[in-house]
Amino acid sequence: MTRIYAILAVFVLALGLGTIYVMTLGRNDDDQFAQCRASQIAGGPGSIGGPFELVNAQGETVTDADVITQPSLIYFGYTFCPDVCPLDTARNAEAVDMLEEQGHMVTPVFISIDPDRDTPEVVGDFAANLHERMIGLTGSPEQVKQASRAYKTYYKAQDKSDEYYLVDHSTFTYLVLPGHGFVEFFKRDDSAEKIATQTACFIDAM
Fold this sequence. Notes:
Pfam families: SCO1-SenC. This protein has a single domain, classed as 3-Layer(aba) Sandwich (Glutaredoxin). The protein is built from six helices and nine strands; from the N terminus they run αββαβαβαβαββββα. The protein has helices at residues 2-24, 64-67, 84-101, 120-130, 141-150, 192-204, and strands at 53-55, 61-63, 72-77, 107-112, 135-137, 155-157, 167-169, 173-177, 181-186. The chain is of the alpha/beta class.
């Protein structure tokens, strides 16, 4: 009987070690944010984000270093957007308020992908109406394209002969941390609560 118990003990130990191996398989133990990530990014987080140069609501040229001075939620859209952009940016603003209640200061950032119509004043008013701390950015077509490419976003304007033309664009929100860069993205169907919870996890792990 003693031998049988010994065999069973070895079996249980092996099963436990196998379970731990499966649970940790593919996990990067060097990633300080591993417990917070909910999405897989082709090429890793370092493949998204990077330097940009845009124009703020005051008409000043600013860089990513000027803008991302604290954890930031970045969204690419346009002020003439009839539904998606206002809803997404309002949700981001709600998440920012939730985070502030928890003691986490996060900056909401809105980058226009419609520089022909979105002047610094227009994008500034749009941002201010959604949140008092939201930063609105625009720029030349070249500056906007560079920022979009850095974050791998998509946008394409429809027929511009119509002054009310629409712009097709991706709708991700990007979480960017000072000193770390891009760490996570959120989709349209993610709630303000989910964004706030995940963002807080990343901030706590900094």
